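queue> pop job 88
queue> type: inverse folding (structure -> sequence)
queue> payload:
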């Protein structure tokens, strides 16, 4: 079931850094992620909570994100997120927060992490913050969402309650089989027009199925200790 109370608006134009964070948050909330052009065509007033994020462009969020913030209302709440080249976020969020404050929109939380950056002096070393944001950053973003919006988390209703790490919301699954086609580990199978989890233990948390699912009905969760265990288990594997 798609979350109808929350939407995330993300402008990620450089290396897709901020989009990775937005999609991680959206997977936790089961909500839509749209860019600014898509958002401009929507009635944003129907959403109780709006997430606003982008990379940091010349010390503030992207101008399109700031402009959209000025269309929200005082009856709505917002959370802010960003990716940045600098080690600390500093005052980079202030412009966006000021735009929301003028509208009377409450800011319920802020998240930021470092992102791959090829601007300015970073060009001399072929880019700074290589590999960022990484899986750890995405997990922190999801934890941030669970902390600020516990009331908006849609619990999964799986066909099989025995699963510990991989869940499919049976009510939302439309049987498109995109997850089956995208999964390199054959974790899923077609079960009479619906998708079933059959090899959960082989899941390597690549999130290809999560990205492929048009309904946002797949959730994959492993603890950091379990993720390390997965890496060790598959360390000796080679591609065919």
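queue> result:
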């Amino acid at each position: 079931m798609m979350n109808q109370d929350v939407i995330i608006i993300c402008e990620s134009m450089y290396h897709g850094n901020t989009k990775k964070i937005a999609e991680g948050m959206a997977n936790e909330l089961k909500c839509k992620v749209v860019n600014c052009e898509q958002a401009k065509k929507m009635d944003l007033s129907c959403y109780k909570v709006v997430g606003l994020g982008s990379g940091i462009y010349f010390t503030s969020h992207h101008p399109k994100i700031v402009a959209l913030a000025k269309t929200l209302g005082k009856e709505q709440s917002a959370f802010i997120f960003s990716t940045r080249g600098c080690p600390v976020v500093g005052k980079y969020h202030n412009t966006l927060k000021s735009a929301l404050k003028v509208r009377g929109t409450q800011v319920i939380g802020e998240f930021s992490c470092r992102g791959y950056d090829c601007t300015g002096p970073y060009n001399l070393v072929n880019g700074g913050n290589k590999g960022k944001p990484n899986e750890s950053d995405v997990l922190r973003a999801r934890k941030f969402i669970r902390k600020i919006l516990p009331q908006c988390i849609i619990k999964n209703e799986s066909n099989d309650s025995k699963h510990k790490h991989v869940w499919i919301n049976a009510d939302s699954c439309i049987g498109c089989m995109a997850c089956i086609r995208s999964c390199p580990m054959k974790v899923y199978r077609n079960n009479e027009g619906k998708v079933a989890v059959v090899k959960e233990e082989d899941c390597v948390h690549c999130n290809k199925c999560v990205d492929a699912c048009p309904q946002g009905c797949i959730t994959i969760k492993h603890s950091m200790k379990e993720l390390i265990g997965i890496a060790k288990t598959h360390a000796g594997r080679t591609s065919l």
